From TrEMBL:
PANTHER family tied to this protein: GLUTAMINE AMIDOTRANSFERASE YLR126C-RELATED
Domain of life: Bacteria
Gene3D superfamilies per record: 3.40.50.880
Pfam families: GATase
Glutamine amidotransferase domain boundaries: 19-165
Descriptive protein name: Glutamine amidotransferase domain-containing protein
GO cellular component labels: cytosol
Length: 214
């Protein structure tokens, strides 16, 4: 079976719906907990970077180790699918910037794609990305223009969280309690289903494009 590395940054933020996609495709996810000091070797192997409640250009010492690991892997040509904090780390590695927003963007949020598609997605972030050189903007919201970008065929950054399914939201709400701005029960099952459909198509395209890099 093919394998795919995934970097997790926080105990309450796991692969979520990405695990469902991988299981359906016969892909084995190798999950590495960067917050516990676990990273794969620097290589050209494709990788998914998840989010987490940390500053992308500061934060704990293990995050600096991950920044160095990511830079080395990008130098070797690694394909990257990066979400929220991951998308910020990817942008910084490729010459972009990250800045604090006037106010955070949370909960279900409509996102408009460059191809005219609209999708309601889950958000929870206080920072925004200024895109790296040569990046193509793929999606925007009213409050945050840089919702999704691409640098070349195999490097995607998403500011929103398509991997958060109903179980993910319940886990985050239980962990962060009153700090969490995410919806409580009942979950919007139709919205989650629409996002999962989008995630599957998007990951399929990225995985196919990445197949020549590993």
């Amino acid at each position: 079976m093919p394998t795919l590395n995934l970097i997790q940054h926080h105990p309450a933020e796991g692969p979520g719906a990405i695990a469902e996609w991988a299981a359906a495709r016969g892909v084995t996810l190798n999950v590495f907990r960067a917050d516990l000091g676990h990273l794969p070797p620097v290589s050209a192997a494709p990788v998914i970077l998840l989010g987490g409640p940390y500053e992308s250009h500061a934060g704990p010492a293990w995050l600096e180790a991950e920044r160095q690991w990511l830079a080395g892997s990008l130098d070797q040509g690694a394909a990257v699918f990066a979400i929220c904090l991951g998308a910020q780390l990817l942008a910084l590695s490729l010459g972009g910037h990250v800045r604090r927003m006037d106010r955070s963007e949370t909960g279900w949020t409509p996102v408009m794609f460059a191809d005219g598609q609209r999708l309601k997605v889950l958000e929870w972030h206080e920072d925004a990305i200024d895109l790296p050189p040569d990046a193509q903007l793929l999606a925007s919201s009213d409050r945050c223009r840089q919702q999704m970008y691409r640098v070349g065929p195999t490097r995607l950054g998403l500011q929103f969280h398509p991997e958060w399914n109903a179980e993910s939201v319940a886990t985050l709400n239980a962990h962060f309690a009153d700090e969490s701005p995410l919806p409580r029960e009942p979950q919007d099952s139709a919205a989650h289903a629409a996002v999962f459909d989008w995630l599957q198509v998007t990951l399929d395209g990225w995985w196919a494009a990445s197949s020549g890099t590993h």
